[in-house]
């Protein structure tokens, strides 16, 4: 009798252990299911927001284009104007249109990354253009160090966006003024573009999040510039490195392959 | 004789500002508000360069480019929509260049000059 009771108790313990194990497994599966469902909802919401951002961004490019053309015509008509205020306000309007255009480009690239359409691009000409689109604010001087470099294998518009992001970031890092330097060099079939500022520098904690989307230390901006820059450079088989010490300024180095016939091969 | 440029864009603001900018740069400029008007213009007279929006009501810019010619004029396509297949279609249709709105006017004028210089 005692033996029978012992067997029954042992079986009951075994059954209870089994039930506990299965219950724990079920809980884990349920948790995983809930988390997957939450992720799906989050992804769908992000996709919807992305689509909306993309549609609005594209639609804004047309009116921005018209404003930009009108400012060009006004600039031409007021070249000889002695009104210093008028010229200053015109510069402000041009700078703000450029800033809005860059925000939209970053947003569109983030919402729907486009594969680069590669051709040979003259980096120095593109830097000239970026500096014309985003001229330095008062108190910031531009320094250039142009080496004899070949054309790079790049999508012109995307590389322009990279340069604009790095240049405007450099300006933002120097609220008290300073020098923004753009230098080029060539080595082993690659072209390096260094964009340096003499600004506030980046602390190690910020540096570790620098290329994350929506990470920003600025009072204004959505925090997509460097994330998009990083993505574009990667899509060009390029690299981007950052060298910075707080109070010592920052240097971003973008390294891209030089153009060759193989660059456009499918 | 001045180089003749046809500007095609359904957005009145874009069309009018481009006409003024190109006229200031010394070109003879005609404007068309959509693809059908553009096709009529190129049938009526010859143009050295066409500056045309891709997305328009009716036939889009790439379709219009395919129907122009022979020989087709040099066509610079403009777009606010940086969509990859659209860009590839424009390049496959032998567009001289594709520019994204908003563009640097100096860059655009350089392209128009380049297209005019190589026009047959």
Brief account:
Chain A is an alpha+beta fold and 266 residues long.
What does this structure look like?
The complex is a heterodimer of chains A (266) and B (120). Chain A is an alpha+beta fold. Helices cover 56% and strands 17% of the residues of chain A. Chain A contains six helices and seven strands. A five-stranded mixed sheet of chain A has the order 2-4-5-7-6, covered by helices on one side. Chain A starts with a helix and ends in a 9-residue tail after the last strand. Chain B is globular. Chain B is α/β, with parallel strands linked by helices and 120 residues long. Chain B has five helices and five strands. Chain B has helices at residues 12-24, 35-44, 61-67, 84-92, 105-118, and strands spanning 4-8, 28-32, 49-53, 74-79, 97-100. In chain B, β4 (74-79), α4 and β5 form a beta-alpha-beta unit. Classes of the chains: A alpha+beta (266), B alpha/beta (120). The interface between A and B is medium-sized, with 25 and 24 residues.
Rg result of chain A: 27 Å
Based on the structure, what is the oligomeric state of the protein chains? heterodimer
The number of strands of chain A is: 7
- Report the structural category of chain A: alpha+beta
Strand content of chain A: 15-25%
| Helix content, binned percent of chain B | 40-55%
Output the strand order for the largest sheet of chain A: 2-4-5-7-6
Shape of chain A: elongated
- Are there runs of chain B of 5+ residues with pLDDT below 50, and where? none
Q: What is the terminal-to-terminal distance of chain B?
A: 15 Å
Shape of chain B: globular
How are the SSEs placed, and which strands pair?
The complex is a heterodimer of chains A (266) and B (120).
Chain A: H1 2-77, H2 84-111, E1 119-121, H3 123-133, E2 140-145, E3 152-154, H4 156-172, E4 178-187, E5 190-197, H5 204-209, H6 225-235, E6 239-245, E7 249-257
Parallel strand pairs in A: 2-4
Antiparallel strand pairs in A: 1-3, 4-5, 5-7, 6-7
Helix pairs in contact in A: 1-2, 2-6, 3-4, 4-6
Chain B: E1 4-8, H1 12-24, E2 28-32, H2 35-44, E3 49-53, H3 61-67, E4 74-79, H4 84-92, E5 97-100, H5 105-118
Parallel strand pairs in B: 1-2, 1-3, 3-4, 4-5
Helix pairs in contact in B: 2-3
């Amino acid at each position: 009798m005692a033996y029978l009771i012992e067997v029954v108790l042992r079986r009951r313990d075994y059954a209870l252990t089994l039930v506990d194990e299965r219950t724990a497994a079920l809980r884990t599966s349920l948790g995983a299911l809930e988390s997957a469902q939450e992720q799906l909802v989050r992804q769908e919401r992000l996709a919807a927001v992305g689509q909306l951002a993309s549609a609005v961004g594209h639609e804004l490019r047309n009116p921005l284009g018209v404003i930009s053309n009108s400012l060009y015509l006004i600039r031409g008509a007021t070249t000889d104007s002695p009104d210093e205020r008028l010229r200053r306000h015109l510069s402000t309007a041009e700078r703000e249109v450029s800033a809005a255009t860059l925000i939209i480009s970053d947003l569109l690239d983030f919402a729907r990354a486009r594969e680069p359409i590669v051709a040979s691009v003259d980096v120095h000409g593109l830097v000239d253009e970026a500096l014309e689109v985003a001229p330095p604010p008062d108190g910031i001087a531009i320094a250039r160090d142009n080496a004899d470099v070949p054309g790079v294998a790049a999508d012109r518009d995307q590389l322009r966006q990279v340069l604009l992001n790095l240049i405007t970031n450099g300006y933002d890092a120097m609220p008290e003024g300073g020098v923004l330097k753009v230098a080029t060099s060539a080595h082993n079939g690659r072209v390096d573009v260094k964009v340096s500022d003499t600004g506030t520098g980046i602390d190690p904690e910020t540096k570790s999040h620098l290329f994350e989307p929506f990470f920003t230390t600025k009072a204004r901006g959505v925090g997509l510039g460097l994330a998009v820059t990083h993505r574009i450079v990667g899509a060009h088989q390029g690299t981007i490195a950052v060298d910075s010490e707080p109070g010592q300024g920052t240097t971003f180095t973008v390294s891209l392959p030089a153009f060759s016939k193989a660059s456009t091969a499918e | 004789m001045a180089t003749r440029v046809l500007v095609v864009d359904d957005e009145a603001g874009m069309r009018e500002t481009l006409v003024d900018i190109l006229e200031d740069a010394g070109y003879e400029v005609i404007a068309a508000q959509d693809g059908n008007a553009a096709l009529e213009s190129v049938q009526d007279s010859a143009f050295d360069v066409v500056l045309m929006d891709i997305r328009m009501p009716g036939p889009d810019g790439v379709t219009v480019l395919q129907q122009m010619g022979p020989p087709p004029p040099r066509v610079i396509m403009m777009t606010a929509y940086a969509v990859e297949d659209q860009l590839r279609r424009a390049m496959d249709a032998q567009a001289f260049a594709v520019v994204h709105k908003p563009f640097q006017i100096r860059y655009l004028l350089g392209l128009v000059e380049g297209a005019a210089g190589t026009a047959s």
